[in-house]
Amino acid sequence: MKTKSKKNASHLLPCGRAPIASPTRASDRKTFTQWKAVLDLEIESKGLNKSRPREQILEIIVNQLEHFTVPDLVKAVQKSHPELGAATIYRSIPVLVEAGILLESLSDSSRMAIYEVNSGEHHDHIVCTDCHQIFEFHDERIERAQNELTKKLAFQVISHRHVIYARCDKFSKKA
Amino acid sequence: MKTKSKKNASHLLPCGRAPIASPTRASDRKTFTQWKAVLDLEIESKGLNKSRPREQILEIIVNQLEHFTVPDLVKAVQKSHPELGAATIYRSIPVLVEAGILLESLSDSSRMAIYEVNSGEHHDHIVCTDCHQIFEFHDERIERAQNELTKKLAFQVISHRHVIYARCDKFSKKA
DNA sequence: ATGAATGCAAAGGTTTTGCACCCCC
DNA sequence: GGGGGTGCAAAACCTTTGCATTCAT
Known about the structure:
2 copies of one chain form a homodimer.
Chain A: H1 32-45, H2 52-64, H3 70-80, H4 86-98, E1 102-107, E2 113-117, E3 124-128, E4 134-137, H5 140-152, E5 155-168, H6 169-174
Parallel strand pairs in A: 3-5
Antiparallel strand pairs in A: 1-2, 3-4
Helix pairs in contact in A: 2-4, 3-4
Chain A binds a DNA duplex through residues 47-54, 69-71, 83-88, 90-91, 110, 112.
């Protein structure tokens, strides 16, 4: 009955379940070259300088990383480019966020920020408490109810973060 | 008829607006003595020992603190009890959380955990990006939509955290 | 030439841990 | 007496910062 999520049996998650359809398709994702153009625009508009390290960091992010913490990024970058200092990588984060390339999307259990490449479509997250996989969801009813609520309370919404901690039932059955 | 939030003009917020009616009334809050009983039960059931420091920490929390970080708590506790070590206070947090006395309710902008006394009624938070006040809300429509969503996706929900970052418009007008 | 970016090391801040001593049961 | 609990200091981490040097324009 609800077992029709079998379509991509090829990419099963650690917990054994099929991925939830993400609001953003892989085909909609920008390439490194496209993001590079976005970054260059930001750099130009702010009177900054282009640099090799920032380009290398961007490349690692868009080609290799899904949801990552800064220490994750430091490790991944230094694996390919051991000469890059951690401080440079830390300093690149706000630039990438300002450029709209990265979003700080949630916190891990130790409360470190988790970043992701901006997919262009707002979504929230479900974190599996068993396998630690991060799923994305977007629910219009929730968004609508939230907008009506904040309007009624006379708040001007800047952003929101809605994280559901849950367990994939398939994983619980395996365990 | 939803303008009845004028009742306590006496406690205006830093931003000048009246507080949103909180889902929990002050009168529903447990006293120190009641929480102490909860703590003792937890301590007994886990085979731990009662101790003066844990009692003193609990007392500070229930009598003085609303939403607080651990460093906040350390300062508040050591003001009254300078002999208590910070490590003891850090070590008391998981015990209080396990006992159901404290909830880790959200993170501040530097991503430190913010705790609050468990009110017994689930609520989520609106954080004003101007005055940094934390408001509470509870919206049945959002809860319902979320439950239906996770059911459809076959997740077993453990908990969730929904934080809306917004600005009180009254404050923006003043500023 | 000027200002920005980098790498390194040091400093800052929070949280955890090792350990000797103390207290509860 | 034995297993927790405490306090202190040190350690572990993540993140920021100061500074001399290099790079981009």
